[in-house]
Design goal:
7 strands; 8 helices; 218 residues; 7-stranded mixed beta sheet; alpha/beta; Rossmann fold
Length: 218
């Protein structure tokens, strides 16, 4: 039998969400506040099903040391932090005090603010503050697309063998097939670079706008 890609219509997406564990009150309110208070930027928030995936994967892996690049209002970091093993820590890098002030409120409401360290400033420079040796269990990258290659090169050496890097938006609304804008070309160049990187094995899964899952090889 030949494989046929599944078209994710709005109706099928609604069915998908109806058959996932629903967001708890804190998560639902964060999603709603981001959409209502920041309508021009709300597309930067990860999809609800992606948030659930991040939490489950973090828990399944027993993650203790994680890094996020691009926090926005905090849905992805909330999800990762909730999945951390006992004593686990998440370091978040972002440039916006405004957006991350929302994240801080919800981290506190969820009772996981003690697991998260937020570092404000350009991640391209601040990632160098991390220990250079391989020690990270999980990395999530969802920030400015032109810097994806920079973040990748800074973080892959810091991921332990068997650790995982997750990179968001790697199907980029299908524009990877017909790149036009600067961001289009940045994503296609990143995807081409990563598939040639012998330090990892990877798959792109069609969650939301495309999520690359890369495992660091021994």
């Amino acid at each position: 039998m030949s494989f046929r890609p599944l078209p994710l219509t709005p109706e099928l997406h609604a069915y998908l969400l109806d058959h996932c564990t629903p967001p708890d009150e804190v998560t639902a309110e964060l999603i709603a506040e981001t959409r209502s208070a920041l309508p021009d930027n709300a597309r930067m928030q990860v999809a609800p099903e992606e948030a659930a995936f991040l939490r489950i994967l973090t828990a399944v892996m027993g993650v203790r040391r994680a890094v996020e690049v691009g926090t926005f209002t905090g849905l992805s970091s909330l999800s990762i932090a909730r999945g951390l093993a006992d004593g686990g820590r998440l370091i978040c890098f972002d440039i916006s005090e405004e957006f991350t002030s929302v994240a801080r409120r919800y981290w506190k409401r969820a009772g996981i603010d003690d697991r998260i360290e937020l570092r404000i400033g350009p991640a391209a420079a601040r990632l160098g503050e991390l220990p250079a040796e391989p020690h990270l269990d999980l990395v999530f990258i969802d920030a400015d697309k032109e810097s994806y290659q920079t973040y990748w090169e800074a973080l892959v050496p810091r991921v332990r063998p068997g650790g995982v890097l997750l990179i968001d938006n790697t199907l980029w609304s299908g524009q990877v097939l017909n790149p036009q804008s600067v961001d289009d070309h940045a994503i296609t160049a990143f995807n081409d670079m990563v598939i040639a990187d012998k330090r990892v094995e990877l798959v792109i899964v069609p969650i939301a706008d495309g999520l690359t899952i890369a495992r660091r090889l021994p």
